[in-house]
Amino acid sequence: MDLSPQRARTRQAILDAAAAQWSRDPTVGLGDIAAAAGVGRATVHRYFSDRQVLHAALITDSWTTLRAAIEQAGPATDSALKVIQRIVTAMVHAGDRMSFLFTTTEGTPSEDDAGIAREVDELILAEIERGQREGALDSAVPARWIELTIWSTVYTGLRAAADGLVPRHSVDELIRRTLHRAVSEQPK
């Protein structure tokens, strides 16, 4: 789909609004999403023929956004622990997308999105395994377990902020502290 810059911005505004709305309440209708995007409902339908098409597009866009955010964290450019901390920050900043993916797919991608989801997993797992080789992360804990712990801790932090239990600006640090204590190599 080759869109003009204006149409691309409108499409992205609709996706952003859908992520914000559906991450909080998956039952929100297209009218509310249109209002949040600052467009009319007919405009939403020009870009996405129905709710299911918008939903599928948002899942793909969320995985793409998450992959780009993790790539921006600079895998293999610093110690694994520092990179993982930047990945956590990237995941927190992609908060609506993360929450949407969790509430919608429970972390299980569709066949169409399996490739990009696998890339996201591979980026995270590579840093975890490097952290284990560097001695920063507990090598007795399976890397996939640590990855799942990262995903669930980020989701928990985002949910706690959305529910008003903690301020949004403190979520990143709370997640880092929690993960550090949970998966760091412990002195023997």
TrEMBL record:
> DNA-binding region spans which residues?
29-48
Which residues does the UniProt record annotate as the domain HTH tetR-type? 8-66
Q: What one GO molecular function would you report for this record?
A: transcription cis-regulatory region binding
Q: Which InterPro entries match?
A: Homeodomain-like_sf, HTH-type_TetR-like_transc_reg, HTH_TetR, Tet_transcr_reg_TetR-rel_C_sf
- What keywords does the record list, in alphabetical order? DNA-binding, Transcription, Transcription regulation
Write one Pfam family the protein is assigned to.
TetR_N
Q: Which domain of life is it from?
A: Bacteria
Q: What is this protein called?
A: TetR family transcriptional regulator
Organism from which the protein derives:
Streptomyces alboflavus
